[in-house]
UniProtKB/TrEMBL annotation:
Species whose genome carries this gene: candidate division WS6 bacterium GW2011_GWC1_33_20
Pfam families: Cupredoxin_1 (PF13473)
Domain EfeO-type cupredoxin-like span(s) in chain numbering: 28-126
Signal peptide residues on this chain, from the entry's feature table: none
Membrane-spanning intervals of the chain: 6-23
Taxonomic path: Bacteria, Candidatus Dojkabacteria
UniProt keyword terms in alphabetical order: Membrane, Transmembrane, Transmembrane helix
Keyword rRNA processing: no
Protein name in the entry: EfeO-type cupredoxin-like domain-containing protein
């Protein structure tokens, strides 16, 4: 009889925990107003945001597929970035930026057309990434 009570209370506790976790997840999903295009691309208030991480090993992801014909911002998130990846360039747009060691840098890319490619690079050209617009 005692065993049954213990098992019953464990089952009830587990159910309550599961309900709490599930309802929390649902709430978080509703709070997000941004539309995710791919894992690192989202649209916030009608502006496409492309998220790239800059860190010791270069830029990530190396290739991004994004939507064409929409106002676009490149958001570089520097994380413990101490190397030459801090000296960032987009040659075709004549952009040269010194990225912080930690922090966010936003660069406006305009509204790229379908088929357009934007190449980001460190100043030496050893670390690169590509954004394809379609
Ligand atoms: Cu470099």
């Amino acid at each position: 009889m005692k065993t049954i009570l213990i098992v019953t209370s464990i089952v009830i506790s587990a159910t309550i925990i599961a309900i709490v976790i599930f309802s929390k997840d649902t709430k978080n999903a509703e709070d997000v107003k941004a539309e995710t295009i791919t894992s690192n691309v989202l649209v916030e208030d009608g502006i496409q945001v492309i998220q790239v991480v800059s860190t010791g090993g270069g830029y990530s992801p190396r290739t991004t597929n994004a939507k064409a014909n929409i106002e676009t911002v490149l958001r570089i998130n520097s994380e413990n970035s101490y190397g030459c990846e801090r000296s960032f360039r987009i040659p075709q747009l004549d952009i040269n930026e010194i990225l912080p060691t930690n922090g966010i840098t936003e660069i406006e890319l305009g509204s790229p057309k379908a088929g357009e490619e934007i190449f980001g690079s460190c100043s030496m050209g050893m670390y690169t990434f590509t954004i394809n617009f379609n």
